[in-house]
Amino acid sequence: MDSTVLAMQNNNLPAKNYVPTQRYCTEPNVDIGESKTNLIINYLPQGMSQEEVRALFASIGEVESCKLVRDKISGQSLGYGFVEFKDPMHAQKAVLSFNGLRLQNKTIKVRIQSEERQIINNNTTRMFKFIQMHSSLCQTWGISNRG
């Protein structure tokens, strides 16, 4: 496991050699300079191993890291994982080549991780606006918005 991740898990503080590569913000949909080499892969077949995922993506280019996410208790795959390429061009080629690929009984979804975060941010913004509108209407009509 990466020493930075391990240090952060142990005491919630970054390791001394931690160098932030992103600026932090609270505003949704703000570009924070994310890497274009990190991919998230969804809908992986249950029987697919981390080594098989790595081999598949290594057919495109040099893979820096590969992580298949597993259930902590059973050890069974949760059907998604992360691949990091050394070269952003290889990451983009992997998205174009493998997004929508049928593997066993599943059709995988491959995205650059920052794109996935953008989708989440868009949904969060919509939900926040809805809650603001709902609260405003409740206040206007004198209705309690608590349950």
From TrEMBL:
This is RRM domain-containing protein. Transmembrane segments: none annotated. GO terms for molecular function: mRNA binding. It comes from Diploscapter pachys. The keyword Repeat applies. Residues 37-115 form the RRM domain. PANTHER family: OS02G0815200 PROTEIN, RRM DOMAIN-CONTAINING PROTEIN. The lineage of its organism: Eukaryota, Metazoa, Ecdysozoa, Nematoda, Chromadorea. GO terms for biological process: negative regulation of gene expression; positive regulation of signal transduction. InterPro entries: Euk_RNA-bind_prot, Hud_Sxl_RNA, Nucleotide-bd_a/b_plait_sf, RBD_domain_sf, RRM_dom. GO terms for cellular component: cytoplasm; nucleus; ribonucleoprotein complex. Keywords: Repeat, RNA-binding.
